[in-house]
């Protein structure tokens, strides 16, 4: 049953709630679809929490590289928790209504953690650049105080960039009949399209946020690796070159896992209106669910210290 809509002024309307959907066209098998989703959410939450515990409990991992990895893991936990409740509620219980203000809160945190993840990946590329180009000054450049300041700057940047978004949506006049969202969570690009008002300001500001955060971050990451490659090629020994590049493999994979879906979501929202709804849904799920699942796998496979520390945490849990 839909809630009754009440509003004082008929010229301005905001819905009490939006109606979410799961996988369009596959509603009959949502129960089965929930199994892989629950498995991925569990893997993402468990894997990233293991990384956090491993770094915290292992003194040898109290280094800049692993502090930044902890930031990435914490961000992935936040991104997982931002979408998991509504997605599983839709798939398990067909609970599709989400309150207007609740939707705006979820939208803010969903985009907040996405911007934070992009910024953390940029910080990690800077970490790799300093470690390879000037290893003797690595510890003196990236001190604990510097890392804390970088973390605070990342949070402040994301907060300032995204703070106006909910208010830009609250000023819009919505259509009473347009309450059906395209996902089981709230995207800014999806919510603003339910309005009957002029959304030019929302489109421009949304594009500005994407370009000023993820756009700039991706360019600076590419620049960092161009400088890293220049430094590596100046090394005399081929073995040293390979060893230096091997320290970057995990980060490069994490960058690709995050930014490729980001590009896909941006392209589809702007140019893929003719595509079936299921394509929009699947690309969005890949963007939000896959990176938190794969990042712990990537770092546990490619980084021996992280893998050993995670195994120690697991063995301690079993003994306890």
UniProtKB/TrEMBL annotation:
Q: The organism sits in which domain of life?
A: Eukaryota
Q: How does it sit in the membrane?
A: Multi-pass membrane protein
Gene3D superfamilies recorded for this chain? Rhodopsin 7-helix transmembrane proteins (1.20.1070.10)
Q: Which GO terms describe its cellular component?
A: plasma membrane
Alphabetized, the UniProt keywords read: Cell membrane, G-protein coupled receptor, Membrane, Olfaction, Receptor, Sensory transduction, Transducer, Transmembrane, Transmembrane helix
TM ranges: 7-26, 32-55, 67-93, 105-126, 146-169, 203-228, 249-272, 278-301
Q: Which GO terms describe its biological process?
A: cellular response to lipid
Keyword Membrane in record: yes
List the Pfam families.
7tm_4
Where does the UniProt annotation locate this protein? Cell membrane; Membrane
G-protein coupled receptors family 1 profile domain: from which residue to which, for each copy? Answer: 47-299
Which PROSITE patterns does this entry report, sorted A to Z? G_PROTEIN_RECEP_F1_1 (PS00237), G_PROTEIN_RECEP_F1_2 (PS50262)
GO molecular-function term, one example from the UniProt record: olfactory receptor activity
Q: What is its main location?
A: membrane
Keyword presence, Transit peptide: no
Q: Which family does it belong to?
A: Belongs to the G-protein coupled receptor 1 family.
Describe the task this protein carries out. Putative odorant or sperm cell receptor.
Q: Protein name, please?
A: Olfactory receptor
Native source species: Bos mutus grunniens
The organism's taxonomic lineage, starting at the top? Eukaryota, Metazoa, Chordata, Craniata, Vertebrata
């Amino acid at each position: 049953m839909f809630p009754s809509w009440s509003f004082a002024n008929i010229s301005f309307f905001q819905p009490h709630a939006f109606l979410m959907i799961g996988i369009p066209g596959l509603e009959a098998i949502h129960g089965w679809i929930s199994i892989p989703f629950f498995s991925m959410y569990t893997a993402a939450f468990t894997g990233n929490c293991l990384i956090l515990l491993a770094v915290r409990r292992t003194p040898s991992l109290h280094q800049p590289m692993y502090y930044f990895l902890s930031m990435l893991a914490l961000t992935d936990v936040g991104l997982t928790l931002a979408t998991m409740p509504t997605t599983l509620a839709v798939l398990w219980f067909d609970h599709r209504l989400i309150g207007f203000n609740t939707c705006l809160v979820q939208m803010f945190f969903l985009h907040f953690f996405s911007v934070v993840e992009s910024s953390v990946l940029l910080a990690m590329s800077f970490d790799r650049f300093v470690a390879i180009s000037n290893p003797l000054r690595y510890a003196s450049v990236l001190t604990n105080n510097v890392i804390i300041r970088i973390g605070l700057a990342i949070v402040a940047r994301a907060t300032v960039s995204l703070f106006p978004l909910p208010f830009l949506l609250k000023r819009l006049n919505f259509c009473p009949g347009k309450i059906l969202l395209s996902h089981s969570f709230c995207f800014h690009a999806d919510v603003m399209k339910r309005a009957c008002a002029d959304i030019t300001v929302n489109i421009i500001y949304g594009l500005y946020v994407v370009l000023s955060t993820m756009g700039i971050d991706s360019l600076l990451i590419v620049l960092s690796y161009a400088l890293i490659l220049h430094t590596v090629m100046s090394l005399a020994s081929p073995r040293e070159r390979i060893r230096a590049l091997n320290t970057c493999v995990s980060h490069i994979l994490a960058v690709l896992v995050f930014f490729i879906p980001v590009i896909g979501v941006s392209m589809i929202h702007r140019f893929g209106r003719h595509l079936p709804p299921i394509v929009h849904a699947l690309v969005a799920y890949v963007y939000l669910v896959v990176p938190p699942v794969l990042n712990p796998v990537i770092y546990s496979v490619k980084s021996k210290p992280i893998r050993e520390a995670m195994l120690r945490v697991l063995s301690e849990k079993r003994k306890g």
